[in-house]
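Table S2 (text version). Query chain:
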Amino acid sequence: MRWCFRQISDLAVLWAGHRVAVGTLVAFVTIWTAVGLSFSFPRQWLLLTNMVGTLIIFFILLLVQHSQNRDMMALHAKLDELIRSSKAGNHWIAAEKKEAEAIEEMRRQHHDQTSETMN
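Corresponding structure-token output:
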């Protein structure tokens, strides 16, 4: 089930980010408006438009967030491996899981060390 969701999510994000999607959306909105004008935009028409638009935006937002979270986890894993295999201090591994103050302190210490090395 998880694998199937990932495939569907990847496809949906790929499709939503494609430039053909913009052209399709413009054509759909033009047709939707033309049909609405021919029926003088009844109240149900506007309610349906609002509901469908909100649901589509919410769905795409969730898919993009899922994809972005997965990409960030992969990026962090790659960075951790680069840190582990280099001469960098291992204290930087999994820095994203620390509190903001701790990260800022680590950054300040690193900056101080590089400033001393340069002088």
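Notes on Table S2: Helices lie at 2-16, 19-38, 43-85, 100-118. The first helix runs from residue 2 to 16.
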